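ingest -> validate -> predict -> emit
validate: passed (alphabet ok, no gaps, 243 aa)
predict: started
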Amino acid sequence: MRVSEYFPLDAVGGGSAGNGAEPEPRTRIELAYRRLRRDIVDGSLPPGSKLRVEHLKSQYQVGAGTLREALALLLSDSLVVAQEQKGFRVAPVSMEDLEDLTHTRSLLEMEALKQSIARGDDDWEAGLASAFHKLTLAEERLVKNAAVAFNEWEDRNRQFHEALLAACPSRWLRQMRTVLYQQAERYRRLSAVYGPPPTSVHDEHRAIYEAALARDVTRASEALEHHIGRAVNVAKLSHLLDR
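emit:
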């Protein structure tokens, strides 16, 4: 493996972070990881498909060692599964997995929301208001063309949910909730892009936002639980996971 695959890209002529979005990857491994993750999440590498290192080397233009390190990171993300003596495959999707993921995320996120509402101050309200405004603009574009607007919406949706829970004092609660949120991204994409037009999503977010600002824990929790369960309902009604 080349030394540059482990050392920061900017030390070997790479670029710097741009425009305040996600920072530029600093190693070859991180770059390969991000590209593989993106292709898994958007379905370019379909659920259950085999990940052959020799084929992926030319596709992603990195060495075999770098790819294996990136796949190991995706394994820890549960986006890739390892098969003894058979290499790696993209993790499957299923209704059972989605329901389990949704239920567990709801439990964690509602508890984090309760704590965040109890402790949120003026800065918390201001951050939440800003995140909701940006999300509103992204959702206007999402309804018009979900396939094109999804990536922007996904980023602003994440920012809104993080702002909502920002005052929660439990680092572990927020961290575990983040893992489950990331796991659900493939299902959110399926729901938004292949399900019916996501016209109700903005109303769901508005209900959560208004209840949180009103410090109404019961109403906010109910709205949040309904919203998190949306992907399950869309998948069932549209038979998205029957294929």
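Residues 1-20 have pLDDT under 50 and may be disordered.
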